[in-house]
Amino acid sequence: MDKPFVVLFGGVPGTSKSIIAHHLSCTYHLPIYANDTLRFEIREDMMIDNNLDPELVVEFEKRNQQRRQTMLSGKKPIIFDNSVDRSWAKQKRELTNAGYNWYLINMELSRPFLTQLFHPTGRIKFADRIDYYLKEHEQFIAKHSNDISLNVTDNTFRNRLHHCETGLQTFIDSLQTQTETELVLNSIPANA
């Protein structure tokens, strides 16, 4: 494939982005890069247990930038398991400059649905900041709705997962068709 792709997610914490990212990674044999994994690594390296510690934040930004550049330089499809709500403009520039397509899955779950979801799934810690997260997500959508590839709404987990899986398959198929069309067009002599 001439132009690789990245699968990304928009949405508030606790919307099952990581679970879906790992499922898609296994289903499509795509490597996954997770911000949370990097944070745990740095917390252990630095023996700091607060993700907001200034030293940890600086180290995270440094390592995150290095690893993303390394992964993108490989020109292979990848899944980024993080929310792009606060950083999409920067990530979009990064992907465009690296020659990547993107498939942006927007987890558009309602406040009542999220409130119900947080309790049985053990994500109750997000409930206290739900209004802040939802406002941030609304701002992301208002600015970048044209970049969203797939909207996932309130539904059972299986249905949300199936929606992501079939949407990604359609996207991959369209890239393959696009590449095949480009090969045919490139094989036609210019003076034909």
Notes on the structure:
This protein has one domain: Rossmann fold (3-Layer(aba) Sandwich), CATH 3.40.50. It has 7 helices and 5 strands; from the N terminus they run βαβααβαβααβα. About 3% of the residues have low confidence. The two termini are 26 Å apart. Helices cover 56% and strands 13% of the residues. The protein has a 5-stranded parallel β-sheet, with helices on both faces. By secondary structure, the chain is α/β, with parallel strands linked by helices.
List keywords for this structure.
192 residues, alpha/beta, Rossmann fold, 5-stranded parallel β-sheet, 7 helices, 5 strands, globular
Quick structural summary:
The chain is of the alpha/beta class.
CATH class: Alpha Beta
Q: What distance separates the N and C termini?
A: 26 Å
Backbone structural class: alpha/beta
Total strand count, please? 5
Helix content: 55-70%
Order of helices and strands: EHEHHEHEHHEH
Strands of the widest sheet, in order across it, are 2-3-1-4-5
How many whole angstroms does the radius of gyration measure?
A: 18 Å
